Amino acid sequence: MNNNSCRFIARTNITFTSSPDVKGGGCLYGSNLGHKSPRKYGGAQVFTYKDLEVATDRFNEANVIGSGEYGVVYRGILADGTVAAIKMLRRQGKQGERAFRIEVDLLSRLHSPYLVELLGYCADQHHRLLIFEFMSNGTLQNHLHHKRFQPLDWGTRLQIALDCARALEFLHEHTFPAVIHRDFKCSNILLDQNFHAKVSDFGFAKMGSEKINGQTLTRVLGTTGYLAPEYASTGKLTTKSDVYSYGVVLLQLLTGRIPVDTKRPPGEHVLVSWALPRLTNREKAVEMVDPALRGLYSKKDLIQVAAIAAMCVQPEADYRPLMTDVVQSLIPLVKNLSSISSSASSRVQNQIVVPGPRDS
């Protein structure tokens, strides 16, 4: 396996048999208060609630960097000086506990440059918090759909598309059994200081069948507009369900539109329904492009990305590609952009005039 894609040489085996225990409101590592808590679980550090109070200045509102139905995310500084994103979960009951355990279990074992790194967790009595690496540019959702953010250029959008494809490739094809994210969407894609993307929020993740192309029957969870049709209607979940969601994100990168927008004219409310018949028509594909790009993109690359998106959002799961195929299709486009950028940079440097004796 390519060393650039993740830190694993062989397929990673995942099991929940050693899952940490949560009982009686105690800590994740057990409820025996006389037992000294371990400081590590599967590579993730164990924090007390007091540790995180200190890190966030008592969860000061000034440190809030995000919020939603899942809870609130704070920027914090850990005792060793590390800047971190500290997510305080709101989920209550069995579903909330399950989501917390899944995220700790998976992310303490899965390590890829394309997944947000779990630094640690807190399960101090009724408190449930997750501590992640800090991603300074926030969510892809904000950069695509909020006017206070500068529009992303074409090259950055292609790089984000490739990073996300690598993340899903790793989950689907380099872990065993496969991990199905089940809630892949723009708000769960985070951007670092260089606008490289990493996938986050594994609370809904599900282990796939150990059979090749196997499916799992499960209750439907996820976000409207991103759900694959066969999963939404029957609960049949496969890795191809994530591929569909990826296709929706790719359409958002292309068009700047949200998945469901009832403010649009009739026939344009659902992004996939509106886009699918246009993606394979060159003229109509160009008309779909996000106006924020101001025409600054390669038409040839656009047609190729539109074709990838069209395959990913096919109504029939069997017609959707593997994420490995998506990755291999995007790599040349990103490499070509990098080479163009490098040659342009060198031309600029060659044109710089160094003042001589007569110019000074």
TrEMBL record:
Transmembrane segments: none annotated. Gene3D superfamilies: Phosphorylase Kinase, domain 1, Transferase(Phosphotransferase) domain 1. The keyword ATP-binding applies. Keywords: ATP-binding, Kinase, Nucleotide-binding, Serine/threonine-protein kinase, Transferase. InterPro entries: Kinase-like_dom_sf, Prot_kinase_dom, Protein_kinase_ATP_BS, Ser/Thr_kinase_AS. ATP binds at residue 87. The keyword Cell cycle does not apply. GO terms for molecular function: ATP binding; protein serine/threonine kinase activity. Residues 59-334 form the Protein kinase domain. Pfam families: Pkinase. Belongs to the protein kinase superfamily. This is Protein kinase domain-containing protein.
